[in-house]
Every structure is written in C-alpha cells, then in structure tokens.
Amino acid sequence: MKNFSTVEDAYSEIGNSCIDFVTGRTWDAAICKFQIYNKMAIGRWSLKSNGIETNEALNWPDSSIDGGGAALFLRDDLLATTGDRIWGLTFTLFPDGKIKIEYDYNKPAEYEDTDEVITGEEMNQSLTDLL
C-alpha cells in the first residue's frame, strides 16, 4: 500500500483513480464511493455522462491506482485532527478539475469493529455446547 504524507496527496491519488476509470469516455463527473472499515476501504467508481450514471468500466481496473489506501489515510487524518471517524467517503471529480468531497460519519449498522478472532476450536466448542 502506498504511504501518503499529506491530505492533498491522498486526494490526488483518488482523483487519479477517477481519471483512470473514465479514460477514453465522455463524462460530466467521475465518482468514487468508499466504504471505510478498520483495515480496508472498498471503492466503487462510476461516471455521469449526459445525466446518466454508469459504473461499467472499459478494461478497468488496469492500473495500480485504487484509492483505498488514500481513503484509509483520510480516515486517520480526520480522526486525528477532528476526533471524528468517517465510515464512507464520496469523491466527485469534474472535467474542469474541481472536486466535491462528502464524508459519511454513520457507522454501518451491520459492522462490528473488533480485532477479536474466534479460533476454529472455540467455534467447535460453542457448537458442541448447543447440543
């Protein structure tokens, strides 16, 4: 995973992933929505063209740019500077270079943030206890 030293570097990485996604197509906006977890971030890219949004990629992903590490960096930076943790991030890039960034501070209801690991032996014991 790439290391980032500034917020601007992280935004640039996500912007580059958007440009990589839309290359060769007509677009009015490139959008990347991240779900941000404890140790990973999952991005979904889409583009708007003539008012229609699509997430179909032409031979993509085809580069090492994915933006997930950048989203994790931004999560950690916001937590350190504001005390608030983000669970999602929507990055929108426009052809003129302007960007729009939206943060989601709501923890997904189904997400359990824990580092605990249940071993196979513990799972088998708990199933045996049910009998």
Strand order, sheet with most strands: 3-2-1-4-5
Supply the CATH class. Alpha Beta
Span of the ends, CA to CA: 45 Å
Radius of gyration over alpha carbons? Answer: 18 Å
Q: What is the global morphology?
A: elongated
Mean pLDDT: 84
Number of helices: 3
Query: What characterizes the major β-sheet?
Result: 5 strands, antiparallel
Describe the structure.
This protein is of the alpha+beta class and 131 residues long. The protein has one domain: BH3703-like domains (Murine Class I Major Histocompatibility Complex, H2-DB, Chain A, domain 1, 2-Layer Sandwich), CATH 3.30.500. Helices cover 32% and strands 24% of the residues. The chain contains 3 helices and 5 strands. It has helices spanning 7-22, 68-82, 120-130, and strands at 29-36, 41-49, 52-54, 88-93, 99-104. It has a 5-stranded antiparallel β-sheet. β2 and β3 (52-54) form a beta hairpin. α1 packs antiparallel against α2. The N and C termini lie far apart (45 Å).
Structure in a nutshell:
The protein has 131 residues and is an alpha+beta fold. Helices cover 32% and strands 24% of the residues. It contains three helices and five strands.
Main attributes of the structure:
Murine Class I Major Histocompatibility Complex, H2-DB, Chain A, domain 1; 131 residues; elongated; alpha+beta; 32% helix; five-stranded antiparallel sheet
